[in-house]
Known about the structure:
The structure is a homotetramer. Chain A is an alpha+beta fold. The first copy, chain A, has one domain: DD-peptidase/beta-lactamase superfamily (Beta-lactamase), CATH 3.40.710. Chain A contains 14 helices and eight strands. Chain A has helices at residues 3-14, 28-31, 65-77, 98-102, 113-127, 130-142, 151-159, 162-173, 181-192, 198-204, 206-209, 223-236, 242-248, 285-298; strands at residues 39-44, 49-53, 59-60, 148-149, 194-196, 253-255, 260-265, 269-274. The first copy, chain A, has a five-stranded antiparallel sheet with strand order 2-1-8-7-6. A three-stranded antiparallel sheet of chain A has the order 3-5-4. Chain A is globular. The model of chain A has no long low-confidence stretch (mean pLDDT 95). Chains in contact: A-B, A-D, B-C, C-D. The interface between A and B is medium-sized, with 32 and 32 residues.
Amino acid sequence: MDYQAVLQEVAAFARPLVGRGQVAQYIPALADVDAERFGIAVADVNGEVHGVGDWQEPFSVQSISKAFSLALVLAEGGERIWDRVGTEPSGNPFNSLVQLEYENGIPRNPFINAGALVVTDRLQSLTGDAGTTMLEFLRAESGNPDVAFDPVVAASEAEHGDRNAALAHFMASYGNLDNPVTTVLEHYFRQCAIRMSCRDLALAAAFLARHGVRNDGTRLLPAREAKQVNAVMLTCGTYDAAGSFAYRVGLPGKSGVGGGIVAVIPGRCTLCVWSPGLDTYGNSVAGVAALDHFTTVTGWSVF
Amino acid sequence: MDYQAVLQEVAAFARPLVGRGQVAQYIPALADVDAERFGIAVADVNGEVHGVGDWQEPFSVQSISKAFSLALVLAEGGERIWDRVGTEPSGNPFNSLVQLEYENGIPRNPFINAGALVVTDRLQSLTGDAGTTMLEFLRAESGNPDVAFDPVVAASEAEHGDRNAALAHFMASYGNLDNPVTTVLEHYFRQCAIRMSCRDLALAAAFLARHGVRNDGTRLLPAREAKQVNAVMLTCGTYDAAGSFAYRVGLPGKSGVGGGIVAVIPGRCTLCVWSPGLDTYGNSVAGVAALDHFTTVTGWSVF
Amino acid sequence: MDYQAVLQEVAAFARPLVGRGQVAQYIPALADVDAERFGIAVADVNGEVHGVGDWQEPFSVQSISKAFSLALVLAEGGERIWDRVGTEPSGNPFNSLVQLEYENGIPRNPFINAGALVVTDRLQSLTGDAGTTMLEFLRAESGNPDVAFDPVVAASEAEHGDRNAALAHFMASYGNLDNPVTTVLEHYFRQCAIRMSCRDLALAAAFLARHGVRNDGTRLLPAREAKQVNAVMLTCGTYDAAGSFAYRVGLPGKSGVGGGIVAVIPGRCTLCVWSPGLDTYGNSVAGVAALDHFTTVTGWSVF
Amino acid sequence: MDYQAVLQEVAAFARPLVGRGQVAQYIPALADVDAERFGIAVADVNGEVHGVGDWQEPFSVQSISKAFSLALVLAEGGERIWDRVGTEPSGNPFNSLVQLEYENGIPRNPFINAGALVVTDRLQSLTGDAGTTMLEFLRAESGNPDVAFDPVVAASEAEHGDRNAALAHFMASYGNLDNPVTTVLEHYFRQCAIRMSCRDLALAAAFLARHGVRNDGTRLLPAREAKQVNAVMLTCGTYDAAGSFAYRVGLPGKSGVGGGIVAVIPGRCTLCVWSPGLDTYGNSVAGVAALDHFTTVTGWSVF
């Protein structure tokens, strides 16, 4: 596969959609991002990485971090996390409290905000420092020691974090948080505020295409748990549009409101695309189109 | 691949679970089925079929018919069906009215009962006889002219059909049914009451592994639409346990409360497993375990 | 109390609001009503009746009939009806299916449509002809043998009755209907289609001001049950605006989308006001204002 | 009316129910209360007070404080509070987040916890010290300078306050709190933790029977606003059993999980009853029965 040529074609296809949609507005640090950016990178299972466009420019990973915190919790503590968070799609907007109430404080899956807070709480209990644990993992996998939190974004998230605070206190009322709400929120906001490029993210998520094996050849997860992460990404990874993403793109994927999406082709490669304009579900308009076209060109959908 | 040997091993693995769970009780004709039955069949993309156990014994297909009616509507009328039914997981029990109300009569997906009623209504409009259209298709693909409706089951479904009648009237109140409620219900109940064996079903769904091509080499669906059916099966095909099915089995699958499950390995083969004991979500206990083991043995999960 | 003078003042006060709001549109027979009509009548506990404006002109009683069917069921069958329908406000639009699902087919109260269908079903079981039973009662109390169903409205209700059919089938699926759905709906639609004037309705509901005693001095209900009807009217009688009606008017009241409202001042009198323009909750704009002013002028709120 | 004799009879009637139900368990300070206590007091509009049983023993007022904070906000700031909180029954358990989400952070009424938090926030903005404002009012009306917060209960509420913290953050996310969440919660928990006797409470709420006039003859509220408080108490004052309370007792009432209930007979008197055993809705079992019997004996229901 000539990845570079495919990425060129995909970028050309997606170009007219760049700037469409709406850049995330809920915090100023995100609202200021240039809507015209577009980058895409692919890391194959051999560790080779390719990219086009703004593929080396860091952006705010936001909810993409949820895939990494899930993997790290599985790596550190195994499948016991599934006692505290489900594996089913939510069928509701990503920050809904409704389902949480009907299901007694057990979030539907680890990629809605409530579920990610539980995963962060668990990672904090397992490691003593959830934020630093993730940062070190991402630096190691991307080979980029400059991967860092954006303190302005983290502070801004905290300032506008009442909805997440409500979710955290709500789960605490059901006994589904072990650490203090303020600790969990702090680490959660820091993880969301990590800045990485498409290149960094494609490399950092390459273990998901390699059935759990890291870039240095050591194993992060057993194949069974890597498969779990991919399955949950496919059914729950793109907010309330997971069904539509499966239907159009047909790959496990995890998006963030920073405009990034990581997608996995098991056994082959990991992709990361970035363009800040979001559709009404919170997924990058040009990013989804690019991934759709990539699977069309390569025939590599899982379906 | 020595399918016969693999099926033997899978059957041996699942055997201890046969009889576990609860046979569907809501109509007498289903409640009387022998809980100890187990069969599994595989039809590969070349049309070869293998099976073990009770793989040639007909059972009530129930909701498995929803996958065929979706495919037939796409074949007859194309993607306009997606204006009237969504592609997202429901996040709620399969017969819930709640989401339908919040979403103005547009069912979340074609595999919840409300969505299947809309699909049946559309198939009726496109063909003039939704029930017969499906029957003829299933007979042709399975090569079995004896495939038929079970009139006792269809009558029993109708007698206990108030919940489906409520769904149908509710959608009619939003203008999302074109035919009279009684007509739609009649064809819907007939489709659910079709009796087929694992062998018949694996052959009949082989077009989904063949990217839309029927057993006689003609094309039922464009590859793009076959992929849509598979994607919706993966995210919505096993009631409120689709996430867990994706996580354990990792294949597009459609289950029925008769105890059958059809699963697809795109490009390779279609499986059908049957065992009447159901878990709390309505999926065959031994059937899910068998498919889980099949993907473990073959390494053929999509993830 | 010089009722005639008070009614004159109330009518003058409400006059500027007549024509405001929206005449019910869901069936043609209601949409054609002249929005400029306004009438008000009062029947005191001694059987004296007064009125001003269009107080002798018949209109479609619609949901006001729900108060009479509740009273007749209590009269015929006593308090066992409360096993099948609750006494709590619904907190949701009057035709919601959501709560019904969470509460296993037991409607919240007898004045939401679902609850009224259960009451009609019970009245049918108790009398063999729910519609005629109500008609005879209303003719007797009003002293008007011309009180009748409007067959055009009843047919129109049935034609646009999918939502009510959904509710009825849904409750039937929980075993909370004894008669066939079509029978219940037929009697329900006939009751809604009764035409009466303010004069007729004030007289017909006078037993509620008289603690259960009919106009001929015989007792329809024990005082305890008359109090129950009044209490449920206050907490649930005006759709999703019962709290606001209690807060503004402070009387038990039952409204209908025909623009009528019956209100009760226990121990003193029964009022009926009519003006077809409805607010967003389905209550007569000028009617609510008139009742509000009546309680202000007389000081006769229950609070 | 010989109040003393009526109270004796009511107490004798309720006696067999004392100890029934369950004392509130969610904080230790409440769980330790003796279930066998029962007291009842009545304050008539002339300021005369009578009581029987444990009517002079202080208990935790809990949600009864919500009626006072509403009255004080109306007194200090007028009806603008109704822009931020509704007047409709909730139709859901008292601490539900569901409705709050569907209604964009505007609580249904001031007596569910979310609504009371908004009222407390407003009282804090209007007075600079919501807790002290209420305490001073209650001391003045009861004539008892010993009315005080129980610091143990307040601390315990805060420790188990995650559900209320979730509600407060959730409303803050909609912009419906002006003060910091921690400030609002502190004052809210202090108000709940006030200890008063039946005697104190009957006197303190006497202005509601006197159409807004305090015990010293000055006016706290215009008659119109006193009527509003009574109306909201009737439709929303007893958690998810307001309809049933209206139906049985037929009076405006506000209950608390400490086992107290204040009820108002406009123009006549205010009652307070206390017995710690609660029904499944959180209302005192013996208390509701006592009020029911009081209205039966006196014939003083509003219906």
